[in-house]
Amino acid sequence: MKDIHSLFIYAIKEGQHIVMLWLLEHGAGVNQADSNGMMPIHHAALGGNAQTIQLLLQHGARVDQAGSNGRMPIHYAAFEGNVQAIQLLLIFIFLHSSLF
Predict the structure, then answer these.
(1) pLDDT band at 12, cuts 50/70/90?
(2) Burial level of 20, CB count in 10 A (0-12/13-18/19+)?
(3) Which pTM does this prediction carry?
(4) How far is Cα 52 from Cα 13, in angstroms, rounded to an integer?
């Protein structure tokens, strides 16, 4: 399934939502880390595409999981100055505050 995961990460980076949905239906892991320890939600937050982040959250992406470097999705969004991504993640965290 490594090839599916690589394609999934690529689709996330490119904002290809239909491809992302197809890959999720065919075995891509929404919380599977890549070789650098980054999860799909980390890549989405780094790219700042709020629709991509929303799609991942709707499919069970975890906002409370740090990558191998200790950073959470909100850290990546903040590092890149992606205000819309930060807002979306903060709202999700607030609405699901039992996560923390």
Answers:
(1) very high
(2) buried
(3) 0.89
(4) 9
